[in-house]
Amino acid sequence: MARSSSYSLIPGHQSELSMAYGDEGIGAAKTQGKYWGIFICWLLGNGCLFGFNGMLTIEDYYTYLFPKYHPTRIITLTYQPFVLATTAIFTYNEAKVNTRMRNLAGYVLFFLSSFGVIILDVLSSGGSGIGPFIGVCIIAAALGVADGHVQGGMTGDLSLMCPEFVQSFFAGIAASGAITSALRFFTKAVFENSRDGLRKGAMLFSSISCFFALLCVLLYAFVFPKLPIVKFYRSRAASEGSLTVTADLAAGGIKSQPIPLAEEAPVHTERLSNKQLLYQNMDYALDVFLIYILTLSIFPGFLAEDTGSHSLGSWYVLVLIASFNVSDLVGRYLPLIEQIKLTSRKGLLIAVVSRFLLIPAFYFTAKYGDQGWMIMLTALLGLSNGHLTVCVLTEAPKGYKGPEQNALGNLLVLFLLSGIFVGAVSDWLWLIGKGW
User: PANTHER family per the record (predicted)?
Assistant: First the structure.
């Protein structure tokens, strides 16, 4: 499939950036603050899903409070339509959206939702029943709206920068799961024999989620836009016709120049439409869609409710979830090793489709295998999920102009979240023949 011209083939951009930075300054601006930026992207990714991963990780608390409502599956299913609908709306209007306000609103809503978990528990005194459960579902929906703001917005924003930023952001998303799992082991060990131990652990999780969300608000608002490398890439995107970076440039102390009229400099304003971008990258969109259909059809519902009882007892589900989260995190760093990074479009599609062999593997392992095999399979699920996700999202934007990269990032996240939604619905198929 044909792609648009790469940056080096667009003659006006280099001269404009040379005027802004100087010939020697361009090289310095493209690297200055890069490692600090990578670390901030990791933290921003972490904050993106820390609240929701916290709700999933304390599933034993919600299962104890709401044993009749399948909280692990219901919370996930409540979350998904809101994140998908919000992302779809923003993707359609991507070129006109103020990315800075979009992302800041999302991180603020993450903070308020995590704080809402604490408030709800205090008001209900840790009680069960349909009322508190509806409250939990409302908070899950709010987290979905926040994720719909942030995940697509950040992916689109980072896609017009260096690939390491996208990789670090999605590694941070996986790290939120690994960190919440590690903290859950700690809180379970500390509070297991104490009165209201489950509740204390859950409240500690929500407090940490509040902290991470607030940290993300501050980092994105005041630190990230002032990094030289970030200002450089956003300036380049603005010179290519992007309207979404204007507020971020202003926050970084750069007054964006008016975009030339199409008849004066058509190369600045011409860009592929979303439909054209999707046509050129349909295989990548299908990749992320299929990756997450499979992953969410198994994690977390099947692992939490359909793997039986084993010698690990109440720790078994926590070990499985931790196994997935840690291996998912490791998988997202593997593409940094060039020798094993999948860059072939055909190879990626083959690898993605091959993962569906894990479905019969999980079925027969749950039925006949022991816990060791289940832990190994779960680790393989997470490893492949993380590795393939990063490979797709870092390869797809290459060769496009800034506005097109932003749009493509939003499109791919929309397909990713669509896969999550379909996967979360498919997860209920495991209950066929087992009753409600």
Answer: EQUILIBRATIVE NUCLEOSIDE TRANSPORTER, EQUILIBRATIVE NUCLEOTIDE TRANSPORTER 3
Contact 245, 97 (CB under 8 A): no
Token pair, residue 180, equals 């919440």
- Taking the CB of residue 280, how many other CB atoms lie within 10 A of it? 19
Gap between the Cα atoms of 91 and 82, Å rounded? 14
* Cα→Cα distances 16→19, 86, 121, 162, 248, Å: 5, 36, 55, 20, 19
Q: Report the alpha-carbon distance of residue 14 to residue 8 in Å, rounded.
A: 8
| Listed residue (264, 389, 373, 252) closest to 310, CA to CA | 373
pLDDT digits (tens, 9 = 90+) for 328-353: 999 999 999 999 999 999 999 999 99
Task: Provide the residue count of the chain.
Answer: 436
Q: What does the alpha-carbon distance between residue 380 and residue 378 come to, in Å, rounded to a whole number? A: 5
* E strand segments, 90-191: none
Contact between 402 and 237 under an 8 Å Cβ cutoff? The reply is yes
363-422: per-residue pLDDT in tens?
Answer: 898 888 888 888 999 999 999 999 999 999 999 999 899 899 999 999 999 999 999 989
- Alpha-carbon distance 224 to 231, whole Å? 9
State the amino acid at position 412 in one-letter form.
L
Q: Any idea which of 198-207, 228-237, 359-368, 410-419 has the lowest mean pLDDT?
A: 198-207
Which CA distances in Å does 360 have to 357, 364, 366, 367? 6, 6, 10, 11
pTM: 0.85
Sequence-separated (6 or more) residues with CB below 8 Å from residue 263:
none
Residue 191's contacts (CB-CB under 8 Å, 6 or more residues apart) are 197, 198, 200, 201
